[in-house]
């Protein structure tokens, strides 16, 4: 099992964000590994780079999937000139300089 998969399972089982040190300890325990500085640094780096994880501040890490989906604002292209529509649906004119 990869370390990031183990960390993901630890957080899923916890059900809430965890302090990074606790997350690392639980991940290492899940993998049956000792807490060695190089190992801890590698796992921390992997967590940082894995899109499934999200830093919540104050050394707390959670899962990105726990964030509510925010409605995105879509921008539509104008029909004729490729300009953007404003909020009223009217095409904005491009300034040619």
UniProtKB/TrEMBL annotation:
InterPro entries: Asxl_HARE-HTH, RNAP_delta_N_dom_sf, RpoE
Gene Ontology cellular-component terms listed: DNA-directed RNA polymerase complex
Gene Ontology BP annotations: DNA-templated transcription; regulation of DNA-templated transcription
Cited Pfam families: HARE-HTH
Region of interest called Disordered, as start-end residue ranges on this chain: 62-97
GO molecular function: nucleotidyltransferase activity
Keywords assigned by UniProt, alphabetized: DNA-directed RNA polymerase, Nucleotidyltransferase, Transcription, Transferase
Record-given protein name: RNAP delta factor
